[in-house]
Amino acid sequence: MDDNRERQMSQAEAVGLLQAKEIEGHLTALDSFAPMALGVLAVASGIYTYLGVRAQLDGSGALTLFAAVAYSLAVSVAIFVFWSYMLRLTPAMRTARSRLGMLLTMALGSLAIVAMSSWLNAAALAGSAAVEQHLALTVQDYQTELEQANRVAVASQGLQLDVSRARQAFEDLSTQEAAGNLSGTSGRGAVFRVLTSKGDELAALESQIEAQGPLIEAAFSEGNAILSRMRELTAAAGPVSERSVVFAEESVRLAGLIARLRQLSVAPVVDRAARDLAASVVLPELDGPNDSIRGAQQTTIESVLELLGQRAESLRDAAQEVIALPAAEETTYQPISAADAVLRYAGDFIPSWAGAIAIDLLPAVLVFMMMVAQSAIREDRAMTNPEDTMTLRELRAAMIAYRGLDSAGLRDDTTVPEAQGTDLPSQAETDTAFDKVAPIDRSLRK
Description:
Keywords: Membrane, Transmembrane, Transmembrane helix. This is DUF4407 domain-containing protein. There is one protein chain. By secondary structure, this protein is an all-alpha fold. The protein is about 80% helix and about 0% strand. It has helices at about 1-30, 35-55, 60-90, 95-155, 160-180, 190-235, 240-265, 265-280, 290-325, 340-345, 350-360, 365-380, 390-405, 425-445. Helix 2 runs parallel beside helix 4 and helix 6 (about 190-235) packs antiparallel against helix 8. The longest helix has about 60 residues, at about 95-155. The two termini are about 30 Å apart. The model is unreliable at about 5-10, about 415-420 and about 440-445 (pLDDT under 50).
């Protein structure tokens, strides 16, 4: 039973040793080009960082160029050095405390890399698209504001019908008074003059409303033309910075036009006219030839004043409904840089952000792979004694060193108790034995 257990243990040790040597062989092959790959990633990140920094700096002189190059070079060196340390040191940690410390260090370094490089990479990758999106959203806001201002102005034009009905009512009453059907006295007396004056006021207000119609239509058409040019600037070819300058000029024109369109709304005018309709009545002197006729005129004028109050209230309610219509939020175009646009609209450019961060933090995956590989090597070698893992080259070097100590009289036999009383083979015998065992060792390595 003991022999079988020992045989099984020796077989497991041999298998573990072979697996460890296989992983070590792969790591040796990967180490040959890992620094070059890490350098390529660092350089690529530095290039995109340069583009992002260059867009942030003002000016085009040599000092500005040197500043952008210096920053991007510092970023490339920092990324290469940081991940080189992580790739070498983190897998070598053996205790849980040391591994946790290295992982926390890696997390802190990753945050620093994102802060100094990744957001600039994202600005270089998607900065122009983010600025164009900002322009497009601004156009939508301006369009909403223009349409709402036009909607209010057109709704105020609808008050013309209410004013027209009120004017027509007073004109009809004045016609009836001229025929003597109201106060009982025909002609153009006091009642007729009151009715005529209010009819003239409403007619003037109606003419003013009618005159605003073409102005509103012209302003709305001009606003749509400006919006069309702004949309063209959003999707046009060429540097987005130059297009933003023209876009800002058009936005100023459009903002002024929207303000003018708001002023074309006649609802406030109708509201004030309705308030004055009943309040500003100049009562004429009763001109009836006798008390009976003058009493009839007074009664008719009181009825007219009551009617004025009703018409005024109706017009005021209609005007207030138009004034109460919700106004669109006032839009003001604010120029924005590529980096600020990428940060503001980060949710719309997730692929660009992912690429910008991945190019900086991809070596973290390599660190975890190295940790897993080194852990597997340690686990496989844990069941094997150190002297059983020596290769033929290491054993030959040990034998030569041992003979050198022996010939110099420096060997201490107490340090190698198992060698006492044992005759070591000669150099020729050792070389012959190594030549026979070497093919077997090479096959085991394979």
